[in-house]
Specification:
The protein is elongated. 78% of the residues lie in helices and 0% in strands. It folds into two domains: 31 residues; 128 residues, Globin-like. With 161 residues, the chain is mostly helical.
Length: 161
Amino acid sequence: MSVVSQVILVADDELRYPTYGELQTINDFFKTGEQRTRIVEALSTNEKKIVQEASKQLWKKRPDFISPGGNAYGDKQRALCLRDYGWYLRLVTYGLLAGDKEPIESIGVVGAREMYNALGVPMPGMAEAIRCLKDASLASLSAADAAAASPYFDYLIQAMS
């Protein structure tokens, strides 16, 4: 949910107008809109490159994942991992657009741990995979944009830990 929606819902629940502080929060949200949009555009445009780089980093750190018996062993399993990488990158962009981590929570984290546990995917490995995705993504951004995007990746890493 965007900052604007949150402010409106809270004010309406309390039958009041938005406070000065809430209006400042909305103003700050609008001021960062251009940057957030630029980051999302850069990440989505470079998705394939980011996913390839992140997977190379992960396989290098954790070759056991792609070895016989590993969760990403074989073409089909590896393709599913790469698909998930793209999905998590897209999820981060949703959070960036909203200026809030709520979309990451509601769309991507709820149930993900249970699903991965049911599939026998080790959660520490998922956290490591998202760290690699973060590193590859931030490398494609300016320092300021990377600093703005980093907390969204960190939130997802924490949720997978």
